[in-house]
């Protein structure tokens, strides 16, 4: 049995609401190494977006470098395609020389027909890689007339199908947005208005398709056309996704099984909802206080420094939303409602700071002040 | 005989007065390849500053990538150390994997004692590389107490000398500023006030020292301690330097000879001096009109758009200096001299635009106008 791990969208160097995730990324990369060792995996695929941007920070380069050095120690090849976040030319430096060392960086459209051949005993798998490409790059590389992402992607898939052996185990890697899939907030739109979608149909004829770009693990069109999903949750919208890698097993005849192996981050990405007091009370006994937290407050009154108060119990709170405020933003407030609102806000604020209600005398002063402000405005 | 070419300070991606030099760099890199083939060279050394900055443009990466692919075709290893312009971490990505392919990127201080071993028949040369390092990096890497660049560099050289075999052919590469050497305007100062200088004495005990950092080819302290100089002239101050590479020949016992091989740029960097009319006349019959030109004008009168006029004959003129203006900037002008100056400037300007001298009437108007301006100023 030849075993392959499919993963994608590492986005090394990513930040979540200004928090660097490098240490978190290092932890799950270690888990991938452990899976590779425990399952005696023969190759690792990364289907694009290795880095979060074309010029990654030096620390992200160091992290990837350390990872491939560890892979080299156990003699496991890595096959990467470049994604829309990667700088193909930058990442592909010395890629020709690196092949011999088992580091395959596929970032060149003109090489989509050249497979990386994996072999173990009687089992051979040919891995073809289609890096992320916009239609213009495809036109430029092939001198063809493709219009739009779908035509461009189909063209590239057809290039591969024109040369591959039908009887062999053919695995396709591609970094693209397959139409009809579930999206997450952390994915970058490739093009406005949905024109970035490509069809799954041309990819049916491969034994397995290892996709990258969408961050939620999912299949589309057939069980063997899959997104492994991203390395970590890169937005709070992903808080309920189960991140992981896909373990594939091939025999001489094709894909025997695939399996989702969960990645366990050192800090979870969680969304908490409730009144400020409730969330703080929950935090005091929360065994995972260190998680990356977003809080949705349902309080109906104005609050003094809720972020500061929450940070005492949840040191890694990264984002705060007020559901009432969010709901209110949908309505068009009239002038009277706003006036009444201002008095209430001040009363709430006063109570929070002093612990008492305003006296009728104090309220009179506030009302008079507000009135004089509104008079000046009018 | 084992043959090595020593070169340094490529600064791929450099611009000269806003002019990209990538195409020029590609031409001389081709010449280095030709020298390697013609002389049957066994290894190429680049003593730092491969790129012009830590984040080089993608086009510079592509150029280096193409070059190492060509070297791979003829099976010649390349050994690079990182310079002060390079991003050591960025350039060193996958350096461990690249060694097997003959691409040696030495950017890690903790590896200075690990040589790249070159061998041909009976001749062995061990190449040790000291990447550019400021004293703080040395303290950090070794937990030692070195003060200043000289102590830091000596410390690193001593690390190598503590492990090397005295009887072997030992070659040291280092990117540093050796005290007493000739400088050029295109070198970046490492530290204010000369504290970046290091002594040559600790390096005497090597068979050859391949230096990088200073852009003029030169030796210092001994004939075998040499700067090869930069790939091209990177400032007009270098217009009289002879750029090239150094060809070394070793037998079993050591360095047999070294030789400077000239690099011939597609466009020379030249400085022309004279009156505007003279320089223009010379340009009309100049067989090397396409060179990168700086002009020093000796005209004593004001000139209308000299840059535009010169560009007609010298399309790649990059810089213009007026010697009189330059000399005048040394003096403190008094108010009277400035006043007389303004009238003369206007007369010159008028003559250039119209082809005639001003009439006495016109001059009277100018004088009156200048007077009224000065009255308002006072």
TrEMBL record, chains A, B:
Alphabetized UniProt keyword annotations: DNA recombination, DNA replication, Endonuclease, Exonuclease, Hydrolase, Nuclease
Annotated TM spans: none
An annotated Gene Ontology molecular function: endonuclease activity
Matching CDD domains: MPP_Mre11_N
Domain Nuclease SbcCD subunit D C-terminal: 266-353
GO biological process terms on file: DNA recombination; DNA replication
InterPro entries membership: Calcineurin-like_PHP, DNA_Repair-Maintenance_Comp, Metallo-depent_PP-like, Mre11_N, SbcD, SbcD_C
Residues covered by the Calcineurin-like phosphoesterase domain: 2-217
Function: SbcCD cleaves DNA hairpin structures. These structures can inhibit DNA replication and are intermediates in certain DNA recombination reactions. The complex acts as a 3'->5' double strand exonuclease that can open hairpins. It also has a 5' single-strand endonuclease activity.
Subunit structure: Heterodimer of SbcC and SbcD.
Protein family (similarity comment): Belongs to the SbcD family.
Protein name: Nuclease SbcCD subunit D
Organism: Thiosulfativibrio zosterae
